[in-house]
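Hi support team,

I submitted a single chain yesterday and got back a structure, but I'm not sure I'm reading the token output correctly. Could someone confirm the output below corresponds to the sequence I sent? I've pasted both exactly as they appear in my results page.

Thanks,
R.
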Amino acid sequence: MSFKTALLIVDVQNGFCPGGNLPVPGGDEVVAVINGLTASGGYDVIVGSQDWHPEGHGSFASSHPGKNVFEMGELAGEPQVMWPDHCVQGTVDAEFHPDLDMSKIDFVQQKGMDPDVDSYSAFRDNAADKATGLADYLIAQGVTELDVCGLATEYCVKFSALDAKTMLPGVNVRFLAAASRGISPTDVAAAIEEMRAAGVDVVAA
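Hi R., thanks for writing in. Yes, this is the structure output for that exact sequence:
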């Protein structure tokens, strides 16, 4: 069987970089690393995911009177962090980082568009009710190896990698730590162990 490699760049958007509405510390540092990966010619398919929330999304603390940012709540029957408004459709906050080389990206998968459920994963919503279509796209491309990187490690990157293992049977999935950043070092370490336990290969350098 011939190998076909893909890179999934998760949510490298202004909103998750310094100056954004939900910044990941050092989030912009991944841009140069990712540009190096996409320029290397080592990938047959390159995909970017994009958080693309409507105004008033249910994951926003502002949509729940009395809830504070970063409190825990519930959405679609699942535990939900109450986030600040971020990556609202059509805003600068939702745009990809301006230095990310979009010319190398073959396909953009938007997510988080249903106001009633969040979607950390690029593959499906948090309730696991609706697939985004990304798995079908990658299967149709004949992908056999998938590298996952981006923002933030313990949220959208982790859930995307875990769902890739579940929804792409037979595909080898790797997490690229150098091209990813997270919010909490403790949570990042736990996320890496969870990915590793699920069969995701962790590439540290």
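A quick pointer for reading it: Residues 162 and 195 are 6 Å apart (CA to CA). Let us know if anything else looks off.

Best,
Support desk
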